[in-house]
Specification:
Shape: flat
Strand order of the largest sheet: 2-1-3-5-4-16
Helix content: 40-55%
Number of helices: 15
Radius of gyration: 37 Å
Strand content: 15-25%
Structural class: alpha/beta
Number of strands: 16
Length: 547
């Protein structure tokens, strides 16, 4: 009887031990690995080394210069001076090719320069970004810059002056150097005036033309702003469509007045007579202009789109506050139009009504009809848009004559310069974004990189490298396309919301969640380990005694 009970006791203990062992096997062999696999952070494999190396990789722009002269010695002198200037540049690499041009292709006068230049371009293959220098012995100016990719110069031209035109106007070398320095030290370097004025790189821009009528009860504006904007601005936007995509919009605002910002002054006539405005004027000091931007910004519908918006505002002044004139802090009146531009934001132009019409309106207490000069207003807006989108005002160079443009379309070499600037900016921006992202992934281990974000990062790295290669091989068009793809992919990856999924879930919160879950389970398991070990040790001893 006792042997039977002892056998049953041993059997019961063995069952309990085997049950505990199987529980531990399931827990440690299946449960914990499954928990580890299902809760681990997913991060797609990334080209970390390539991302870090992008920040230090060289970035050079190659440009071909086609040179035609009548004198061999003069040609060699020009070549040596140009090569001497650009040989120490870290960014610009110039290749000079000698060509021959028929004498009948030289202009006969300054009026037909653009026509002759177009004929020459049709005969020669001039790639995007290239420039052609042609000696014109009878040129009335030392250097004549056409609207095409051709520059004429006479025998009195010096190499340094040609180099200045190439560096300041065609290549915008100073701006490119500033951008490169900003890439190396983003927080220490200052931006030059061109970069500071123009909007940053983006896939799409909105241009919002707004007409402000502060007193619609007494002022009627006879103007179809939508049709006028399409007529005058669309040709300009079409000419830069291969560089920037622009959506044109228009709107009207009423009862938005700046009268509280104006100062009324009396005008004293030397002869004691009253002038057409009854010896009064309203002034606006340039120091008050930032406050106007703030006021207009609260009323505009420029935030209804995710795209960067450029605002063009036409403010129709009412008769009670006319005439409005601009003055600087020294009290001197501006000679130009009553208009100003705010960098990266837009421009504003103020229109005064006619004095005689205002006089009749105030005397008869009737509405005044105002018909703005469309060509005058849009010409100012186009000048502002050129600077806002990256086509700067040209620095005056003695002895250099530039053929005036007769339409809103930019010059061909200006479009090339804008494309070169955008390409350079987009490559540098993609590099900086990828470098910052690589540093974040190294410092913050809880950032998730899913397949979509990983694909964007791979695409950005590949396209940034390809764009730099195209740029160094004088393929500006393809370099711009690849740089845009790199820029958009890097921005999409950096600002993807999934990166923040576990960013605010630190380790102490994990411990606070998992310890109450696993501790009640692990304590019995850990305690039973000693019991199982003692049972396994005593089992051979019992077998020996039985024998």
């Amino acid at each position: 009887m006792s042997e039977s009970m002892e056998y049953e006791s041993d059997t019961s203990v063995a069952r309990r031990m085997y049950s505990a062992i199987s529980y531990m096997v399931v827990l440690f062999g299946i449960g914990i690995p499954m928990w580890w696999y299902t809760t681990q952070l997913y991060r797609m494999a990334l080209p970390d080394t390539r991302m870090q190396n992008l920040g230090t990789a060289p970035l050079q722009i190659q440009m071909n210069i086609h040179l035609a002269t009548t004198s061999v010695n003069f040609k060699q002198l020009i070549i040596n001076e140009i090569n001497e200037h650009f040989k120490n540049s870290d960014i610009i690499n110039v290749n000079i090719h000698e060509i021959k041009v028929n004498k009948e292709w030289l202009p006969t006068n300054i009026e037909n320069v653009n026509d002759i230049a177009s004929t020459i371009e049709n005969h020669f293959i001039i790639n995007t970004g290239d420039i052609m220098l042609i000696e014109w012995p009878n040129s009335p100016h030392e250097i004549v810059v056409t609207s095409n990719r051709i520059i004429y110069f006479n025998t009195e031209t010096t190499g340094p002056r040609l180099i200045k035109v190439l560096s300041k106007w065609i290549l915008q070398e100073d701006t490119l150097n500033h951008m490169m320095e900003n890439m190396k030290q983003p927080t220490l370097q200052k931006q030059d005036s061109i970069v500071r004025k123009r909007v940053s790189a983006a896939d799409q821009y909105d241009v919002l033309v707004t007409v402000v009528n502060p007193d619609p009860e007494w002022t009627k504006v006879n103007w179809n702003v939508k049709d006028v904007a399409i007529q005058y601005l669309t040709p300009f936007f079409q000419s830069i469509s291969h560089i920037s995509n622009v959506t044109l919009k228009s709107q009207w605002l009423y009862y938005v007045s700046i009268s509280d910002k104006l100062e009324k002054h009396a005008i004293v006539d030397k002869n004691g007579l009253t002038n057409e405005w009854n010896n009064k004027r309203f002034t606006l000091n340039e120091q008050q202009l930032p406050y106007l931007i703030t006021m207009f910004e609260t009323k505009l519908a420029s935030h209804v789109s995710k795209n960067p918006c450029l605002n063009l505002i036409v403010y129709i002044n009412d008769c009670k506050h006319a005439p409005l004139q601009f003055y600087n802090p020294k009290g001197n009146r501006y000679n130009g139009p009553n208009a100003f531009m705010s960098p990266r934001w837009g421009g504003v132009i103020f229109i005064n009504p006619e004095a005689n019409e205002c006089k009749k309106s105030l005397e008869n207490q009737t509405k005044i009809n105002v018909t703005p000069d469309s060509q005058y207003i849009m010409s100012i807006f186009i000048t502002q848009l050129r600077q806002l989108l990256g086509i700067p005002e040209l620095e005056n160079i003695n002895g250099v004559h530039i053929i005036p443009i007769t339409s809103s379309t930019p010059r061909q070499w200006e479009l090339d310069a804008l494309m070169r600037l955008r390409t350079f900016e987009q490559i540098l921006s993609a590099r900086l974004t990828l470098k910052s992202l690589a540093q974040l992934l190294t410092e913050i281990t809880t950032i998730v990189i899913n397949d979509e974000v990983g694909a964007s990062i791979h695409s950005a790295v590949d396209n940034a490298e390809i764009a730099a290669e195209y740029l160094s091989n004088n393929d500006l068009h393809n370099a711009f396309i690849k740089s845009r793809m790199a820029f958009l992919s890097s921005e999409a990856a950096f600002y993807d919301p999934s990166l923040l999924a576990l960013l605010y879930f630190p380790d102490d919160q994990k411990y606070a969640i998992y310890i109450p879950l696993f501790l009640p389970i692990m304590i019995p398991v850990i305690i039973s380990l000693n019991t199982i070990r003692a049972w396994l040790v005593s089992k051979p001893n019992k077998a020996t005694k039985t024998d």
